[in-house]
Amino acid sequence: MEFPNVLALAPPAFIALILIEAVAIKSTGRGRYAPQDAAASLAMGLGSQLAPLIGGAALVYAVFVAVYPYRLFDIPNTWATVLICFVIDDFRYYWWHRISHERRWFWASHVVHHSSQHYNLTTALRQTWTGHILGPLLFKTPLVLLGFHPAMLVFVSALNLLYQFWIHTETIGRMGPFEWVFNTPSHHRVHHATNPRYLDANYAGTLIIWDRLFGTFVPEDAAERPRYGIVKQLATFNPLKIAFHEWIAIARDVLSARSLKEAWGYTFGPPGWSPDGSRLTSAAIKDRWARVKGDPPQFGPACPEASTISSN
Amino acid sequence: MTGNLLLDNVISLAGIGLVVAVIAALFRGTRAQATREAALVRLAFDEPDFVVAEAVGARNAQVFRSETGETAIVLVVGDGLVVRRFAPGALRIDETGDEIVLRADDLPGGRLAVRQADAQAVRQWARAVNDWRDSDT
User: Fold this and answer.
1) B40 in A contact zone (CB under 8 Å)
2) pLDDT, position B96
């Protein structure tokens, strides 16, 4: 059974759909585009296609091929087993994605995908240039050892990524019963949102059932529109800074660490972890929000207007 | 696409160029304004426990000081606003001509030039910011 390289066939469709979405947003106002942001996202997408070539995709595949003879089961390459492999790989994706948000080492790669304040089809292509070795080795090797052929695994992972392209849009609203089982634009808008109540939710790739099963599902609330990006928004459209800013931040933190425990925490703790708690993890952000929830913006006795020296 | 890596990337680059050109044509001029109102909304969302005591502003940024001496800067990046929060004394401030330059590692490029409409406003602004700094130290 031959497995086509579906990702290689996709770019023309990506381009056509982005153009259609841009026109739709211009005519309906449902969504946002900005040239600088879109250019940065597309540059990241192009880089992410090149990075694995020098970043170890061949090495990872070689490891898969090397361990495949030690598989537990002989799973034939049929369409039925492809379907089973797709579901199991989607389960694998859920946990990889969840850990990518919960541990800073993996977040340093994945943050790239979340670094835009926009949510449109170009955001889907804003992908990391790093993290192409450890993640796949840790999370995909067990599937190879189970007996799925490496080529089948590459194929279903590519299908999963393709599925996730179209859900990066604000032009599609709710989708009824389809949302019970499948990841949709609405579910994924929540995942990309920085609103405290939406943080660390909806990690699904294709099937939203994993979030429902493991307690990370949060529905989109029409009363609370998602605000996209990361909790400390990037102030750049430079692809190099987008690609490496979190790795540089980790390096700085590790160099400033006063003990191995601190260095470990900075590297493998939750994003936002600090020894003295002076930074904010997702949990701390949710706690902080809970304390002031529902209140209007807080102003002291000397309100801004009263003490303004000059303004616009 | 074609199996030729070089050709594939040339095609991808052409596609990116086309997409960016169309988006630029459709959405040109989409740039955020650092108005006081927009900055306060953004600040309340990103830093809900920041209690604003004083504020100064310019076209490209709004600067807020809290009752505890922290500073929050809301600056324009593309068509969005970005918030940076600083502990008391963490900002270095220089006055150069008609600009106030704030310096901190956490600012884009390590610096932010806050441009004011006129020289008098700049002097007032510098005095205010330096008063803040002096009261912190």
Assistant:
1) yes
2) 73
